[in-house]
Amino acid sequence: MSPITAEIVTIGDEILYGQITDTNSQWMAEELSALGIKVLRTTSVADTASEIIAALDESLNRSDIVLFTGGLGPTKDDVTKKTLCDYTGDQLEINARAEAHIRHLFESRGLPFTEINRQQAAVPSRCEYLHNAAGTAPGMWFSFQGRVIVSMAGVPSEMKYLMRHEVLPRIRERFSTPPITHRYLKTTGIGESFLAEKIAQWEDSLPSHIKLAYLPSVAEVKLRLTAFGENTEAELDAKVNEVLPLIREYVYATEDISLEEAIGKLLLEREATLSTAESCTGGNIAREITKIAGSSAYFLGSVVSYANSAKLDILKVKSETLSNFGAVSEPTVIEMAEGVQRLTGSTFAVSTSGIAGPGGGTPEKPVGTIWMAVTNGQETVTRKLSLGKDRLTNITYTTRAALNLLRLQLTGKWQK
Amino acid sequence: MSPITAEIVTIGDEILYGQITDTNSQWMAEELSALGIKVLRTTSVADTASEIIAALDESLNRSDIVLFTGGLGPTKDDVTKKTLCDYTGDQLEINARAEAHIRHLFESRGLPFTEINRQQAAVPSRCEYLHNAAGTAPGMWFSFQGRVIVSMAGVPSEMKYLMRHEVLPRIRERFSTPPITHRYLKTTGIGESFLAEKIAQWEDSLPSHIKLAYLPSVAEVKLRLTAFGENTEAELDAKVNEVLPLIREYVYATEDISLEEAIGKLLLEREATLSTAESCTGGNIAREITKIAGSSAYFLGSVVSYANSAKLDILKVKSETLSNFGAVSEPTVIEMAEGVQRLTGSTFAVSTSGIAGPGGGTPEKPVGTIWMAVTNGQETVTRKLSLGKDRLTNITYTTRAALNLLRLQLTGKWQK
Predict the structure, then answer these.
(1) Which of A71, A350, B222, B410 has the fewest CB atoms within 10 Å, i.e. is most exposed?
(2) For A306, which of B17, B73, B296 is closest by C-beta distance?
(3) Cβ distance of A45 and B41 shorter than 8 Å
(4) Contact in structure between B239 and B210 (CB atoms under 8 Å)
(5) Which domain-ending residue is among B174, B190, B205?
(6) Helix (H) or strand (E) segment spanning residue A223
(7) Quick one: pLDDT at residue B7?
(8) pLDDT at site B18
(9) How far apart are alpha carbons B326 and B332 in whole angstroms?
(10) Do B385 and B354 contact (CB within 8 A), yes or no?
């Protein structure tokens, strides 16, 4: 059975001028996917009748459902409603419930209810009016030539209100959607191509109703298994259990969470705490850890020892160590990690020191030379990276690698 | 003269499944608009040959330039390159420069260079190879039936590298884009609508060949003035000088640099140094400062005192202060800023302490209560924020506000 298909069309010049990022499409696509609906396209077009009509013609040709956001408001540049009305051969009529709602919103704020405001309550006479309790622009649901067209305001809170309360319930009711199930394997410390080689045979063994996707980001690859059809849970779990032994050291989670979240869980399980001593990462490791809600339960603090004086005075790195080996060296990161561990009394401590670039390199220690250490109080492990010349990439990559070194020490998987 | 038109097509199931937000399109649209190119559409399609071909057919019908991102990688689900090659009736050939570059990337990291990696260096023989120094997937530029097709990796840093160094220069060269000149006013500390009110009269006075764009981001609004035509430099400068007195306290730069960069310049001019003491921002201020190349000339370090013990032991905040006023209080942030200033010997120091959320609020200090301080050794200024409930927004907004408080103190513009 072929899946129900949908398209999302965002209307607004501000997106095409690059003035705002469209975040509505991602949210809507996730909600539709969760219902088993296949989103074929997302499109952004200008708010002119001709562009809206062109987008309508194309999407109705391909998809069962076309969802519009934006282009609905009291000002002249909003032409969506008029265009949809003409397209479906209808005429605008004031909707009594919408009028009462908008009038109430204005009067409760002490604002005059003008004719321009009243016209916002007009919708095509044959569409289904969708009540927008979060704002003034009514939603509209058109059944047209065997397809569905939906129009919603572009303000994210209004779009979400209409999707949750009016649109998604109607889609569930009108379409019989096949179920879809996902599993995730979050990996780090291995590149996409090496991962692909390691699991090539397993990947070839997947049945046609199970799809695998590689979703890479900096220093990470997320594997997503998607099964189409009824009762695929056990089959998907079996597939996950088949592939796990092939890549176990690289998998930090079998759910869709970040490495920082996975580390937070590991620390909470062990009732352990963490601190960091950062030079080249400049506080980025601490910032990634503390982005997670609840991190104050296990994160004690960080010393960003950017200047050598901070390494000496706060972390108590020995001046002989700095003069004999330099700030970017194995002995220095060991003393940094052990120094911040003593200072904060944390169970674990992570340290980094390196030449992030673009300047500061030498023939012996070129830009991209990074040292890192993790200590658990008894044992301190270290790792050296030789990265490229881009400062931000080096900071981001070093952060991921240091978090992964911590994960490996936490789980006893670290091997030099 | 009708404008040069372009479309942006993003390839990847992960967007249609709603797993990631497409931020590339916004960035690209802004860059293209700045060249005077009209972006007609942005589209996201699945990474299958048929969807890519359908998108190509449609966009080549409408637009002079079609820019693809995504769908280029070493694994099987990436079909873009093969599809573009077939579409243009070409065949793949290993590009020697690409091969050397990819081989170097792998070997310098001590990784084996496999045949899968080598195949990444293959590009259609008649396309122009675009060198991607930021990653392994080559960019491609096709001249095809009087149109231009460009293909770039979807990783934002790689796309941006290719756009800046290869694509935008070629677009400027190949298309006779009308001469265009920009001026930027970077503002912070004022919302878009208030800013618009303050400069409404000035905006109305702009001649028709000068356009103003408001480009908002978190806690910032970038104003871009664009003049079309020859010899507009002096006219634009005059317009900037007219508007500056209306909004001077909010303008941190009259060039397109970030607030961190502007602060770095101010510190260098004054031969001053900086340190931070961060609680709720968790190292994010230090990370923003140290993202800037050369920041080691003025940034000494940070103490991320997440636990109260770190505030007491490292920053020497008095225990009476914490017990009498709490960690989120004016006296605490004053002692934090002064503590880290003494500890590092920096000229200036910034501190933050707040309840980032979602948990941890009380009736007196709800989630979103934030205190911050800036000291110059003689005088310490403070500010309180009452933000919302979203943790990441609170961290980001507090970081921008603390940097702005530092800027105002540095420039003598701070008024309580």
Answers:
(1) B222
(2) B296
(3) yes
(4) yes
(5) B174
(6) strand A220-228
(7) 97
(8) 82
(9) 7
(10) yes
B304 CA: distance to closest CA in chain A (Å): 5
**Token digits of residue B156:** 């934002």
Residue B416 lies in a domain: no
pLDDT at A407: 97
Q: CA–CA separation, B162 vs B352, rounded Å? A: 38
Pairing of strands B147-152, B65-69: parallel
Question: Rounded to a whole number, what is the distance in Å from the CA of A96 to chain B's nearest CA?
Answer: 32
Distance from CA of A94 to the nearest CA of B (A): 31
Which chain A residues have a beta carbon less than 8 Å from that of B18? 25-33, 39
Q: Is the predicted pLDDT of residue B110 greater than 80, yes or no?
A: yes
CA closest to B312 among chain A residues = A344
Tell which of A235, A253, A271 closes a domain: A253
Is A241 inside a domain boundary?
A: yes
Range of the domain at B125: 5-174
- Cα–Cα distance, A42 to A222 (Å, whole number): 23
pLDDT score recorded for residue A60: 96
* CA-based nearest residue in chain B for residue A195: B75
3-state DSSP call for residue B381?
Answer: strand
Are B134 and A214 in contact (CB < 8 Å)?
no
- Asked if A282 lies within 8 A of B290 by C-beta distance, the reply is yes
Backbone angles phi, psi at A10, to 5 degrees: -100, 130
Residues of chain B positioned with their CB less than 8 A from the CB of A25: 15, 18, 21-22, 44
pLDDT in tens, B278-290: 999 999 999 999 9
Q: Is residue A416 part of a domain?
A: no
Nearest CA to B150 among B171, B180, B173, B135? B171
- Give A31 or B414, the one with higher predicted confidence: A31
Here the ipTM equals 0.81
Residue-wise pLDDT tens digits, A32-48: 987 879 999 999 999 88
For B294, nearest residue in chain A (alpha carbons): A359
Spans of chain A, pLDDT less than 70: 1, 73-78, 178, 415-416
> How much is the pTM?
0.81
A354 is written with which tokens?
């390196």
Of A26, A299, A360, which has the smallest distance from its Cβ to B306's Cβ? A299
In a domain, A92, yes or no: yes
